[in-house]
Amino acid sequence: MTQDMLILLVLQTVTGYAVSQNVPSPPLRLVGSDNRCSGRVEIFLEGLWGTVCDDLWDLDDAQVVCQQLGCGEPISAPKGATFGPGIGPIWLDDVQCSGNELLITDCTHQGFGLHNCFHDEDASVNCTGANYKTTTQSDSGDEHGSTYIPTDSPTPPNLPVRLVGSNNSCSGRVEIFYEDVWWTVCDDVGEYTHAQVVCRQLECGKAVTVLQNAAFGPGTGPIWMSNVYCTGNESSLAECEYLGFRSYRCGHEDDVSLICEGDGSNITPNNTSQILPVRLVGSNSSCAGRVEVFYEEEWGTVCDDIWGMTHAEVVCRQLGCGRAVSALERAAFGQGTGPIWLDNVQCLGNETSIADCAHQGLQDHNCGHFEDASIICEGDGHGSTYIPTDSPTPPNLPVRLVGSNNSCSGRVEIFYEDVWWTVCDDVGEYSHAQVVCRQLGCGEDVTVLQNAAFGPGTGPIWMSNVYCTGNESSLVECEYLGFRSYRCGHEDDVSLICEGDGSNITPNNTSQILPVRLVGSNSSCAGRVEVFYEEEWGTVCDDIWGMTHAEVVCRQLGCGRAVSALERAAFGQGTGPIWLDNVHCLGNETSIADCAHQGLQDHNCGHFEDASIICEGDGHGSTYIPTDSPTPPTPPNLPVRLVGSNNSCSGRVEIFYEDVWWTVCDDVGEYTHAQVVCRQLGCGEDVTVLQNAAFGPGTGPIWMSNVYCTGNESSLAECEYLGFRSYRCGHEDDVSLICEGDGSNITPNNTSQILPVRLVGSNSSCSGRVEVFYNDEWGTVCDDIWALTHAQVVCLQLGCGRALRALESAAFGEGTGPIWLDNVRCSGHESTLSECSHPGFGDHNCGHGEDASIICEGDEIHTTSGPIPSVRLVGSNSSCSGRVEIFYHGQWGTVCDDLWRESHAQVVCRQLGCGRAVSALERAAFGQGTGPIWLDNVQCSGNESSLTDCAHQGFGSHNCGHAEDASVICEERHNTTQNSTTPSLPVRLVGSNSSCSGRVEVFYYRKWGTVCDDIWKITHAQVICRQLGCGEAVSAPRNAHFGEGTGPIWLDDVQCSGREPFLTHCRHPGFGIHNCGHGEDASVICKERDNDIEIPTAPSTPVRLVGSNSRCSGRVEILFDNQWGTVCDDIWELTHAQVVCRQLACGRAVSAPRQAWFGEGTGPIWLDNVQCSGNESSITDCAHLPFGSHNCGRGEEASVICEGGERDEYSLLQASQLVCSRDQLQVGVPLRSLMSAGLNIFSAHMVDPSCSSYRVDHNILWYQVARRPDICGTMLMTNSTHAIYFNSLFFYPKNNESSSQAVVIPFSCAYPLETMADLNAVKPELLVRGLSESGPKAPAYMNLYRDSSFAHSYPPGLETLPPGSPLYVGVFVNESDSDFAAVLESCYTTDSLDPDDAAHNFLIYNRCPTDPLHVRVVENGVSLSAYFSAEMATVQGFSPYIFLHCRISLCDKRSDNCVPFCRGRKRRSVHTSTQLTPLTIGPITWEK
Q: What is the reported pLDDT for 1085?
């Protein structure tokens, strides 16, 4: 059992019920405070603790964290690293919780490790406190029976157990020790097999009786509910199998008790393991630290008298931490504060717990906490080794010699984490000593002294492993090898005597005692300069501070060249002492302490004069870029102005960024840039560039970003951003311009150069309250006459695409600053808001309740064609099911379930673009909401276009609580994207030790679920066995034969013929629709796979190609860490394919497809940015990022096609032919080609192996299949213009057709969805490689009928109708696939036969009647026929004759809702991009 699997761990003295815990949640903790229920949020993933970014962080997120940790209710959700910045990876960003999730990782987020944050944005929470509850219906979690699961749950060795409530340690109430608390156990868990294990663990013999109903009295602590399976033969609970978490409805009246046969006489006085839990504290590892044991409800320490490695071995074994590394004395991990429970402990080393060792009695000691015992174990039982976090990189290792009157002799001490550490004399090698002496300027001849020759130190002992050759100039240049264990005390401190006597060290050469750091930024190479002296960090005054000083500090820190030397507390003011002032550096000193200065703490400065620097990077070529500007803003967010003169067309150049105007260094002042600035300001193109602050120096920050302009751009927005570049500038170098214009061509309101704009109040930069920056202050805009034209200007200015909405009444909340603009008038064509006319800045008659807001399409959304939905479904992992919430007044709120029924669900599902409504649920079925309740007593007919169109009693008016929140379940959206090559869903068999037998589970919408066994039989099993590549179906068991599942039930009433290629191709009512319980879960037993069918790669080859039926083509996957994973397709090309093909012995590379050509993978993404020359012997020999390091997602998987896998297919494809008829798909393959390829002509079959019939005509072998998606494995995909049917032919070699790889000929036929238009010229995007052709369009007919029965039609030609007779019109499409429907796109009349006659009268437009009072659609989109009627008065014009024209399309009922929704809808454009050709009948006239 791995620690990654622990979500609670064990006892339950339970099981009996099969519980599957397939994907355990990463552990969660709060750190940075002295309370486990408040602090910085961290999760444990891939062996590392990491933080959560505070983007979108709010109280709903805190609710989930507090609930997950059992810490009560959230108090606050602080941002900005309130509890200090973390140091590990940032695992989560953009976390969005509804508040009802069980785990923080259940909330929406953008993926583990994907973020744009720094640690100063770490999220935190404050909870009310520990919340161990008896789990009942009212407090059991999320209304679905789940219960609080403590994170960081111990592995089984950390589960002591005891029996209490009697006078015998072998009988009583069962209690388990976890998280410093004894937990009782629910009697639902009390099975005899578990009882046997507990009795045996306590050395109490066999279990005699399991008692329920608190037979030995009710307990008082929390109730344990984790699920452990024991056979009864285990020696302790540690050996039982952990199966996951299960919920019970228990109180202490249900506490389980045991009576064991033993009376406890065989337990020695010291054999108290069942009541002496142990832990290690004081380090960042659970396997290293001060030893503490738990007795009498309190943790206490162990005295280090006679403490040794045998003791450490016992404790490490007890904790499951591997072998002992070190047994430490003298409170090596800090002094404890509680009682001292044990002293003079004597262990042989083979005891199972520290309590089994001999000792003189609990709390009998003669020690103080300075003698607390500690240990270091090898790891966590998995081979990992304890390494102190934040181990310094060499540049952060100052060194000194102390304990003598000479700086060149003494005890060696290293500075790390604000503390001086002594060094163990085990480390004291001569080569290291030479480096230390050389680093201190004390020569090279050295004597190494042991046994604390200059006195013992008092701080921690340094145990890090550094390798020096002896030739290095400082420890910085030695090689850091990691952590190594020593058994040292301060009596072992190493000392040195160097040949120098210190005379060559100037009074200011104090580098050995003046460490330096940079703080106040997100980089260790930029920030406020601070030095360490007298155990305290202090700042440096900026008097005479310049680039030479910066060069010294950057070099000292290993941060490359200096970029800038900044004054005036540029990175914020410090708070400690000011150590240095008037520092004089030449620039070649090795440390800041080597520079001349007037003495430590001698200054005349304040912290507003703290010196700062920016260095080029970290010594590895990286460059410091200010935080919150991963790249400087996209050009539309770069307003510019010229200031310092009385003319807006001349002056000092300033750029607006992050609410501040920045000056520009004159190194950047190229003529081409100047032309662009003048043009952007409307000041002409002729320009003069002035340097040396010609219009006066600025006062803000200096802009140093590198933009390349040709000079032809209209604004800086169009120039190319090239990255960050370093300049050595001060404000005396500010660049200025004089443009040819004098400002007369700029209208009074044309102030775009000084009027930045932003959107606030939402989590998007492209929606929110509009604010403009004027007079160095942000202010709002009044919503008087605010319209979409205004929104269009702002969206354009911000680079946010089209405007979607212009909102009034402070829709995104009220602002707090000034109101700068009112009565703004925009045409919609202005480039900035300030170009629109307005009365003037600050001139308004508004309040902040009238602040204007907008919603833009966004800079990453290009497919939105309609309004943004004002409704959403939350509380599930599907966007088409959940609690109904609507957005009103800038806030999401719920809907009360009064009068809630199916018609309401229909409206919501339609509004969201989901499928049909499945269910309308009440009573907060998807959890209670937390915001306002916006709607109550909603009454919908079912035809409304949005929920808010239904009748209701007004927003916010209700008599409900959140327990009455309404929910809906809709059919999922049908995904028909072009990349979907496999319309089947994954399936698996679980509950047995074979992958070919077990309970059937289907993976749908990111969750595994079961299948109901109604009408379940052997034909279903045949499909599943074939899909999984197992042998023949043996049986189809029912009634949860392999145990009950725990997830959703996805399928019911499944009907399979046995020939389907995938289970999901069988007929069924729909996903999630069932009337079953898990006791009816269906199962399958197949024969095992024939191992001869698979062709494995060579044992030494950790690469394979999957997703095709050839081992030489497919998606590239490599085996790493015992798991197959994919390769990202970034910079993927033919040289990479050459390496893979050579590695697999598959001949030459044919192509290197990208974008998941052979389907998306499911495991980890192991490699990214792979760079191969083509000559490597293995793909892992190519240069690449570290394993698992990538910036890719699904859909970017790399693939390879090798000659060995495609040679036969290619030759056959060249010779074969495809015929796409109206009813059939026919493939012809020449017999000569098959024989020359060595293939068995009688072996071929389609995807369904039972489809193998053929005919021979003129030496061509013909295979045909009906044009139906459920025949022979044929699949169907539709797009906006075509229905595409595809299948494949499989041919096998002559030698052994069952064990050889097939040669495959994929084929596809595309049929136009429009009935009359010539769409054959439109090339469809086919979903498979291979043969592809277009089929004929379906013929369509239109008739005029005599009456509303549509039974008797008029003959073709001129028709004279009775006076006042309506038109009764019917159309029919002669299509062989009955799952298509005919849809009337539009019908209209003209006075001539020409359907393009400009004078026409629409009867049906965009699938809907234009005048429902006179035009009635009887049937449309239901079948291959459509009917409507139109009254005569509607269609007669001035001509005595009319002609009727109708445009018709085909719609796939399997993937689309083909019946038009017309009531209350607005007109829209025709849904296909192709102009449809109409059917025409006429002329038609009426009798006078």
A: 93
Q: What's the chain's average pLDDT?
A: 76
Give dist(CA 203, CA 173) in Å, integer: 16
**β-sheet bridge partners, residue 161:** 176
Residue pair 57/79 in contact by the 8 Å Cβ criterion: yes
pLDDT, tens digit (0-9, with 9 covering 90-100), for 1114-1152 = 899 998 877 889 999 888 888 888 888 888 877 777 778
Give yes or no for a contact between 414 and 443, defined as CB atoms under 8 angstroms apart: no
- Range 54-73 average pLDDT: 90
**Cα dihedral 1343, 1345, 1351, 1355 sign:** negative
Which among 535, 529, 614 has a CA at the least distance from the CA of 580?
529
Give which of 161, 91, 147, 157 is closest to 119, Cα–Cα. Answer: 91
Cβ–Cβ under 8 Å, residues 774 and 843: no
Which range among 356-370, 765-779, 980-994, 1361-1375 shows the weakest confidence by mean pLDDT?
980-994
Angle (nearest 5°) at CA 1008 between 1002 and 1012? 55
Q: Which residue has the tokens 């081979």?
A: 383
- Residue 578: what pLDDT? 94
Instruction: Give dist(CA 1430, CA 1366) in Å, integer.
Output: 5
pLDDT at 428: 52
Question: Residue 501: its pLDDT value, please?
Answer: 54
| pLDDT-based confidence at residue 487 (cuts at 50, 70, 90) | low
> Which burial class, exposed, middle or buried, applies to 856 when counting CB atoms under 10 A from its CB (0-12, 13-18, 19+)?
buried
Please state whether the predicted TM-score (pTM) of the whole model is above 0.85. no
Specify the pLDDT at position 275: 54
Tokens 């200025």 sit on residue: 736
Write down the pLDDT at residue 1100: 39
What DSSP string runs through 96-109? B--S--SSGGGSB-
- Rounded CA-CA distance 298/152 in Å is 20
**In the numeric block, which tokens belong to residue 881?**
């099911």
Number of C-alpha atoms within 13 angstroms, CB side, residue 181?
Answer: 16
Return the DSSP state at 154. P
Strand segments (E) across 1146-1208: 1149-1151, 1165-1167, 1199-1202
Q: Which residues of 1423-1436 are buried (b: 16+ CB within 10 A; e: fewer)?
A: ebbbbbbbbbebbe
Q: Which residues contact 695 (CB under 8 A, 6 or more apart)?
A: 643, 644, 645, 650, 651, 652, 734, 736
Distances (CA, A) of 303 to 123, 330, 364, 855: 39, 9, 10, 67
Contact between 1286 and 1328 under an 8 Å Cβ cutoff? The reply is: yes
In which residue are the tokens 């560039």 written?
689
As a whole number of angstroms, the distance between CA 651 and CA 664 comes to: 12
Query: What Cα–Cα distance (Å) separates residue 368 from each residue in 289, 306, 340, 359?
Result: 17, 15, 8, 17
- DSSP for 572-619 reads ----S-EEE-S-B--S--SSGGGSB-S-TT-----GGGB-EEEES-SS
Share of the chain above pLDDT 90, in %: 11
Q: Are 1431 and 1366 spatial neighbours (Cβ–Cβ below 8 Å)? A: yes
pLDDT tens-digit readout, 265-282: 433 333 333 457 888 988
- Return all residues near 866 (Cβ < 8 A) that are at least 6 apart: none
Query: Residue 1196 class from Cβ within 10 Å (0-12 exposed, 13-18 middle, 19+ buried)?
Result: buried
Q: 927-950: per-residue pLDDT in tens?
A: 889 889 989 989 888 878 788 888
Structure tokens at 581: 């002032």
Alpha carbon of 471 to those of 410, 459, 502, 511, 731: distances in Å? 22, 29, 21, 20, 44
Q: Per-residue pLDDT tens for 904-917?
A: 888 888 888 787 77
Distance CA 1303, CA 1251 (A): 16
Q: Is 729 helix (H, G, I), strand (E, B) or coil?
A: coil
Q: How far is CA 1460 from CA 1317, 1383, 1384, 1456, in A?
A: 21, 8, 9, 11
